[in-house]
Automatic annotation (TrEMBL):
GO terms for cellular component: cytosol. PANTHER family: GLYCEROL-3-PHOSPHATE DEHYDROGENASE, GLYCEROL-3-PHOSPHATE DEHYDROGENASE [NAD(+)] 2, CHLOROPLASTIC. It comes from Notoacmeibacter marinus. It is an enzyme of class 1 (oxidoreductase). This is Glycerol-3-phosphate dehydrogenase [NAD(P)+].
Length: 334
């Protein structure tokens, strides 16, 4: 048994949604003893009795060893590693609630992809305020929950300002079909994951409005320039944003209807109602991303257009018209 295996045996996964459940399954396949927290006792009970999470991850049979708990204290008992997998906007409250039961010194890996709407903080920044003495990391990259839960090969990045901790956690969370890389660029990994969701809404809207494959490629490419510029302004490194949690996740999310952000955009692009659609983190992140870009003096026309679309201020046609009418200029990539 490797050091990482012995050190990080008991994993608590906070969040019984699609991604929490998928990561719990993967950690189980990686040899961990996993406890999953789902705040709804009905869901926790269903997972334990029927070995399925019909609400969030239908069609996946969960391993019998995977136990769900509706009590945070029970889920966190004896944990040597914690994954926080609730939506970005809920993370502060959940970590505050968990703080009393969190064993001292146990690292928390933040798995949400977003920026806190009220504060403009990355998830690790808000977590550092809530859990000032807890070692923090983030996990992000191109990874659909359904793929990971089915054991399809997937690669992600685990980031922590402490490079040794990032490597330790990457080893602990890797599983036969789940390859984790490590980096010390926490801000870069988080910014990449958060911003790709906003751009996926834009690309989805273009697809929904039948603007064609050429428009889609242009939006992904120019959208990536915005992601990289803003990601660097938020403290990330440009090379990190070229990696799995940046370009890699942008490619995935902008090319598949499996993505909830893409689907949200496509629905808007078709002029359909968005009420009742699944969680699309880019909806909450879009306006604060545009605001942060403004504060840093960075031009983000595609993110700004996405904000206008989400606010119902402009149609896809009008936004494309204004993007196309921007002044002709050299193709800057930096
Ligand atoms: N799904 C995916 O493929 C991937 C998702 N992610 C990221 O993971 C994060 C979670 O996404 P995902 O699991 O898919 O989302 P889901 O919508 O599938 O599940 C969200 C989960 O969070 C819980 N939750 C929501 N609000 C709160 C709250 N205020 N307090 C406590 N629990 C809450 C929900 O509980 P309840 O049912 O009780 O409301 C539910 O268990 C997002 O940031 C997403 O971007 C990252 C990579 C892949
Ligand atoms: O983050 C994801 C894939 O890496 C999941 O994307 P959606 O949240 O758009 O479904």
């Amino acid at each position: 048994m490797s050091l990482a295996e012995t050190k990080r045996k008991r994993v608590a996964v906070l969040g019984g949604g699609a991604w929490g459940t998928a990561l719990a399954v993967s950690a189980h396949h990686g040899g961990r003893d996993v406890r999953l927290w789902a705040r709804d006792p009905v869901l926790a009970d269903e997972i334990n009795r029927h070995r399925t999470n019909r609400r969030y991850l239908a069609d996946v049979v969960l391993p019998p060893e995977l136990k769900a708990f509706a009590s945070l204290g029970d889920a966190l008992k004896d944990a040597s590693l914690v994954l926080s997998v609730v939506p970005a906007q809920a993370t502060r409250a959940v970590l505050a609630e968990a703080s009393g039961d969190l064993p001292a010194g146990v690292p928390v890996v933040l798995c949400a992809k977003g920026i806190e709407r009220e504060t403009g903080k990355l998830v690790s920044e808000l977590a550092a305020e809530t859990l000032p003495n807890t070692p923090l990391a983030a996990l992000s990259g191109p990874s659909f929950a359904a793929d990971v839960a089915r054991g399809l090969p997937t690669a992600v990045t685990v980031a922590s300002a402490d490079a040794d901790l990032a490597q330790d956690l990457a080893e602990a969370l890797s599983a036969p079909a789940f390859r984790c890389y490590s980096t010390d660029d926490l801000a870069g990994v988080e910014a990449g994951g958060a911003l790709k969701n906003v751009l996926a809404i834009a690309v989805g809207a273009a697809a929904g409005a039948d603007l064609g494959a050429s428009a889609r490629a242009a939006l992904v490419t120019r959208g990536f320039v915005e992601l990289r510029r803003l990601g660097v302004a938020l403290g990330g490194r440009a090379d990190t944003l070229m990696g799995l949690s940046g370009l890699g996740d942008l490619i995935l999310t902008c090319s598949s209807e499996q993505s909830r952000n893409f689907t949200y955009g496509a629905t808007l692009g078709r002029g359909g109602p968005t009420i009742g659609l699944k969680l699309a983190e880019g909806v909450a992140t879009a306006s604060i991303a545009a605001e942060l870009a403004k504060r840093h003096g960075i031009e983000t026309p595609i993110i700004d257009a996405t904000v206008a679309l989400l606010a119902g201020e402009s149609s896809v046609g009008e936004l494309v018209g204004s993007l196309m009418a921007r002044p002709v200029k050299p193709e800057d990539h930096i």
